[in-house]
């Protein structure tokens, strides 16, 4: 019997339909059970949240009421501390003045009589150990005062001004007002001129203070409330329904600061609310038994589970019926495969799934591969033609037929897109963004051309992109349509990306073997950007008839420009550059010839700059990107460079006054320790005092006296650091006969006295030595130290 059952199960579970039914049945079972459990726990959570809100509000009201009483009691304690008779009691030599004690007693009696929650008031002198209180009166010592065991509270204040403690009252200490036992007392520190002089103690009536903590019994919920102090002791409790007050010790010790949580104690689950008083730090805790809270919710849970079980049984029957009907076509396909002698292992249908998956997967991979590789292969094809890697017409046509199978026999147009002012553009954007921006240009242009044109984009490096276009539908306005589309694309690129591009457009060619010629035509047309300006769209048909004039640029102009610069004639050098630009513009040069001449001029300027200031001009590369600039911008660039060089050469020729000033500076440096003045410096230079002062101010932008004083102070700073000489000796070495005069001038220039300056620099030197020693130790151990 058991073996037969095992064989039946093994045969049944190998069948796909059976496994699917089993899977659906188990899934539905799990879903229904999950929904049932989720519904129960969700309703439980919502019910807990809703029912805990009144408990939370009642705790909040009770806490606010108690905190309000304690705050008022603290204000009364402050008024007691500020009372004139209390001040006299704490500061006077004679404390037992009948008049003063009577005044305090009457004041305390008035406060207690007008306040329902105050039982008694004490004032304790911490220095002399005496008391004055209502109702006990005056006691000169804590030995004679019956309720004095609390005086140790003085050591617990710390930085706090007020404390509230529950304390034990010894028998006979109540003075007849309250019974002995426990007392809730507010203690207030009394400070007189910043010194701890005494303590005001106000004993509070617990029945009045905690009156609001008693909840109204309008339901059968088992609940209790507790107040726990900072030490974890229970100050007050309101228990009901058989609650054990000791469980609060375990509840408040739970980690975390949640205001609502579940708590189990002795097998009973409680819903706990907790609030913490910002005034006293007490914890107000409410316990509600969840057995009484969720009694009806459990009944709902049982009903839901019963309904779920019935729904599960109905679902199983439905799934079995549906699968017998739904798999009927599949079983027919299975019989067809058997008739065709196809291999169907274990009479199962998994082979259908595998076959379908393989077919769809192969098709998807092939489609994805074609979509990814064809645009890349097409772009590489154009780039190879442009670079000369594919030169034979036969090879061009063969690869064309492979890469462009969906293109028609319509003529082809080639467009070269170039970024205007490429050098400035490259400086404007990080190098990491250059490829991304060129990709954006390609996407924008391809998107704009796509409604009417087939497009392929290729990156030709640096400033250039290429577009191969073909009209989707035949049109007689092909050339004008291409011009308008290119202009629109240039405008959109400028508007969206924030920089301009120019385009050169070739003539239309019907043969793919003429793509190289089309590229040359587009490049040639793009070169006319030099004369037409930025964001130009130039068709080869517009410039194919261009013939230059017979005039040629003479090398004499470059020599004249160099001569004007070296003569320091800024106006003449700028005028020569402007005439050169005008000559290029009016003589109708080919763009390639004009660029060749302009690059020669730029190289000449660079060589002049290297002669004059090799360090600055060596960092500037040759004028390689002139082909992306307009003639006006090139002329402005050359004029700026020529003016800069002319100014530098003129400054060199006018520097004899500067040399004279340098001679005066050298004289100052040689005579720092001598009591010389402006007259001696002018005599050494061989000029009058007034002329010396005028030239020095003009060339050095500072007076002779100020510069000489600065040299002396700098030398004094070096001597302070490098030597251990006295300040008076250093003053003599820099030309000051009086130490006080030297100190006054040094502080004016350095914003610090000489002594402090020496101390500060010595400290910096020692710190630097410590750091260097630490680096040497790390490097000796094989560690590399970052600079």
Automatic annotation (TrEMBL):
<dbReference type="Pfam" id="PF12833">
    <property type="entry name" value="HTH_18"/>
</dbReference>
<keyword id="KW-1133">Transmembrane helix</keyword>
<dbReference type="InterPro" id="IPR020449">
    <property type="entry name" value="Tscrpt_reg_AraC-type_HTH"/>
</dbReference>
<protein>
    <submittedName>
        <fullName>AraC family transcriptional regulator</fullName>
    </submittedName>
</protein>
<feature type="domain" description="HTH araC/xylS-type">
    <location>
        <begin position="662"/>
        <end position="760"/>
    </location>
</feature>
<dbReference type="GO" id="GO:0003700">
    <property type="term" value="F:DNA-binding transcription factor activity"/>
</dbReference>
<dbReference type="InterPro" id="IPR043128">
    <property type="entry name" value="Rev_trsase/Diguanyl_cyclase"/>
</dbReference>
<dbReference type="InterPro" id="IPR018060">
    <property type="entry name" value="HTH_AraC"/>
</dbReference>
<feature type="transmembrane region" description="Helical">
    <location>
        <begin position="20"/>
        <end position="41"/>
    </location>
</feature>
<dbReference type="InterPro" id="IPR009057">
    <property type="entry name" value="Homeodomain-like_sf"/>
</dbReference>
<keyword id="KW-0472">Membrane</keyword>
<dbReference type="GO" id="GO:0043565">
    <property type="term" value="F:sequence-specific DNA binding"/>
</dbReference>
<keyword id="KW-0238">DNA-binding</keyword>
<keyword id="KW-0804">Transcription</keyword>
<keyword id="KW-0812">Transmembrane</keyword>
<keyword id="KW-0805">Transcription regulation</keyword>
